[in-house]
């Protein structure tokens, strides 16, 4: 069954005024019936060419590439108060292969002056590096024009954290490439970032598998301010040496590579006294306290950059993501606490409200100033993150977020799960059909062919 709900049933004053001005052809908002199951038709919309009058067509000697050398494109008035948020993996590409039509679609909506961002749960690298990777996989020749300053990673909202935390707090960074993540954290302003590799370099007894210290964990830095990872010998003593390392925040930026080390170090800090490495809290297991005293003694906050259990690559079976690491950590925590206390953590990335608020604010700023938004279309492939996040997000300015689920990524209907757990506004074949559906829903008489044209 294809899901859809109609966002309107007749032309409003806004579309009528555009008709009178001769700006574009308007039509009734897209009906759910226009989107058909994949088994019936490959594409969600008719292949019959339809006319769409652009606000400022390119001249015969012009091209999108030529426009990039000039001023920003004028916003088509039909689209001035709408925007898009695109997931990346499974929506714009799978593994190293771009989704057919994604490149042309992005060029076209950029040409029309539409606002859009890329909202991904990926992380562990700089936003510019992700943009460069996207450009390479899609074959975009003018990434500065199409992609610049539009990528929001799972940890990007940390850029806006309080300066006091960044300057004075010590943060433990875990990631698939910890050294890259540390350098990025420093660019974000975190001046005291350490990695698990730093800890075992400073105290090899933390992790007894020495051979990995010369390979996976060979990149290290000295601990900040001359702190020591081996200063404490009595875990229950409260005479804390002045050089003992204290960790204030634990930041899991994306799925780590050595789960054993990272789970061990995170565990050590969550059972510690106030985040001092090598200590044990006397509150642990105290039945007179909330959650039997676990995580009740000033331990560092645990932040997970995204909760995606799986993600999509070229492989036919979904691959585990950061959410799988979290589930493993939860299992270890349940064993340590005897099930007496849930693991306390905070989440970023989709479906977190923190992330959607950050994306909404970025869209409001647009390409040159704060502009009101009426509707944002979230195009994603994961019902648990993309669709759920958009469905649950209600921005304070009253704009609506609508969710569009594509069939090119994580969600694939099966006999046991024929429909997604979190219901989107509509289900379509791919990102091109998603944009066509959204623009039709706004009253624009557009086609897939128009969207893919230069």
Automatic annotation (TrEMBL):
<dbReference type="GO" id="GO:0046474">
    <property type="term" value="P:glycerophospholipid biosynthetic process"/>
</dbReference>
<protein>
    <submittedName>
        <fullName>HAD-superfamily hydrolase, subfamily IIA, CECR5</fullName>
    </submittedName>
</protein>
<dbReference type="InterPro" id="IPR050324">
    <property type="entry name" value="CDP-alcohol_PTase-I"/>
</dbReference>
<dbReference type="InterPro" id="IPR036412">
    <property type="entry name" value="HAD-like_sf"/>
</dbReference>
<dbReference type="InterPro" id="IPR006353">
    <property type="entry name" value="HAD-SF_hydro_IIA_CECR5"/>
</dbReference>
<dbReference type="Pfam" id="PF13344">
    <property type="entry name" value="Hydrolase_6"/>
</dbReference>
<dbReference type="Pfam" id="PF13242">
    <property type="entry name" value="Hydrolase_like"/>
</dbReference>
<dbReference type="GO" id="GO:0005739">
    <property type="term" value="C:mitochondrion"/>
</dbReference>
<dbReference type="InterPro" id="IPR023214">
    <property type="entry name" value="HAD_sf"/>
</dbReference>
<dbReference type="InterPro" id="IPR006357">
    <property type="entry name" value="HAD-SF_hydro_IIA"/>
</dbReference>
<keyword id="KW-0378">Hydrolase</keyword>
<dbReference type="GO" id="GO:0016787">
    <property type="term" value="F:hydrolase activity"/>
</dbReference>
